[in-house]
Amino acid sequence: MRLGALTILLLVVSGAARPLSAQAGLIPEPREFSARATMPLSRGMVVAVPANADDKFASADLREYLASREVIVAPAGDARAVVVSLVRSGAAAAKSVPGTRDFFTDSTRKNEGYVLVADGRRVTIVGASATGVFYGVQTLKQLVEGRGGAASLRGALIRDWPAMRWRGFHDDLSRGPVPTLEFQKKQIRTFAAYKLNIYSPYFEHTLSYAANPLIAPPGGAMSRADVRELVAYARRYHVQVVPEQEAFGHLHHVLKFETYAPLGETPHGHVLAPGDSATLPLIASWFREIDSLFPGDFVHIGADETDDLGKGRSAAEVAARGLGAVYLDFLAQVDSVLRPTGRRVLFWGDVAMHAPALVGQLPKGMIAVGWDYWSDNNFDRYLKPFRDVGMETWVAPGVSNWNRVWPDFRTALPNIQGFILAGQRGGSTGVLNTSWDDDGEGLFNETWYGVLFGAAASWQAGESSIPDFQSSYGRVFHGDTTGLIDQAQRELMAAHGLLADAGLGDADDRFFWLDPWSDAGRGVTEAILPVASQLRLQAESALVLVAKARTQPLAEPDALDALELGARRIELIGTKYQFAEEIARMYAEARDSVGTNRAGELLLEISQANGRMQDIRDAFTVTRELYQAAWLRENRPYWIENVLARYDIEIQRWIARGDAVSEARRVMGRTKWLPGYKEIGIPDPVAR
Length: 688
Prior knowledge:
Blueprint: H1 5-13, E1 32-40, E2 45-47, H2 53-68, E3 82-88, H3 107-112, E4 114-119, E5 122-127, H4 130-143, E6 144-145, E7 152-160, E8 166-172, H5 181-193, E9 198-203, H6 224-236, E10 240-241, E11 244-245, H7 252-255, H8 279-293, E12 298-300, H9 315-321, H10 323-338, E13 344-348, E14 367-371, H11 384-387, E15 392-396, H12 409-425, E16 430-435, H13 448-459, H14 466-478, H15 484-501, H16 509-513, H17 519-549, H18 557-592, H19 597-606, H20 612-634, H21 640-671, H22 677-680
Parallel strand pairs: 2-3, 3-5, 8-9, 8-16, 9-10, 9-11, 12-13, 13-14, 14-15, 15-16
Antiparallel strand pairs: 1-7, 4-5, 4-7, 6-7
């Protein structure tokens, strides 16, 4: 990272200045940071009310935050309080603020940059725009430490501006959970607090269209009123809502209806038939309504993973012209249909990148979004085909939450770090950090660790430090001064690592639901047993760490509840396979000991009030209750029964097995005989 001229001067003149390589402990890290003396807030803060309406909102946001930290918001003129002023760069008051001279010299700094000076019981935030002033306020909030009369403000001189113009988060709303409007507002506020400026909700069928009312599921879609309210809300926080409506593939929930089935490449499939005369009018109809609801610069048409293309109605054309030509031609047609709206069209680049010789045929105004959720390097292949023909690119890493009982941040953090760095170096103008809900079980409150790191990496220039982020997250996001929450996150990352070392990848929710006594489950049991004890210890350690951290006042309690739920689900994976194997071993020994007291003792260990089967049952019952509560804190009731039904199946499974063993014990008392695997369902141990 290059040192700015102001920082070089500060390093020479002031011993209190901190070099840019030093961690300010903020998220994102400011571009230029120089420490000043800490100021007590025992007498509170005076937040001057600016004349500009947008800046008034920023000042109100600051006052609301101070109230949440129980810091006194003092009346104007209180000489004992720290005074905060929000100033535009063109105002006379800005000229005397250190660090502002020659700062607002380019469009990036004018649009979103700010100077913050907190020194001598005064704080001045200078921005050339409402967005810059707002972002300065967000940084100031992070400088407040402690609560109430014991609170203080870290002094600093900060000059800050973003590395990436567009910094967004993409949230799947079509594969299970659909957030409430209130939770979406919470998302917007939090995104904005960490300087994200794009929220991209993903729709396959969960946006209500007046012209196509059949598609949206009852209770599981955003209404027009929802959209209007959310867009207006987001605008105040300098966040643009960029809808993604799939317009090629991933449309089974449209094509499953007989009304729309004729438009499919295959019967009731996933991909629109590009040659059907009704396909483009349907897309145009959707985006006319989107245009009326979502003002802004962009729309996203998806167009990824069109695996059915060429396998049905377009087979002959694909055979004659090639898959890439047919695909890219249809993308260009979609762009031409949407061009009258004046929006830039985003599309996923995974299909087009494999036809680099043809990419140049796409309209240059389209924006290719390269995505990769697993790698930590070698990202250029996702960008080069588009960059070579002069197309703008964005990058899309992921938070690795899909199909997992807790996100795999071991994979996510290096992926986010590496892909965004590659985007910066390759001239990409935007980032869409990404979550998906393929399993229909994902909870957004589980993902904040990856969301905030994506925000940091998108704003900060160069390679963002994972260790620095990990040591700041708990304090910045939760107000945890102990480091316990940071350690809890590391424990769950280590738990993923144990499963990876065992050859199982990570905490895939397949392992959570799989019956350990099924044929597939026996293989998983064999792999997981060597690490099951340590897996449980890692998860239990995370639970203890969070419980200890909660003895202090903390922010974002719902996210902590989600963390605890993730830890319990990982712990249950270890418990289930460990206890199921203990049951198998005890039952095998009981069969070998029929006619002795030992056999009865073993059967009681397996099934009674404190039996292993009841332990597994109870763990699923408790987790079900916690999961349902966590879901309803952020999502509509739509879809949840599909997940709760799986908990109910597991609970009933272990109740039935416990009853069967209890009955077998009674039969043994009469007959001196115990049934085998086929009769009772308990297999031989993995390693007998």
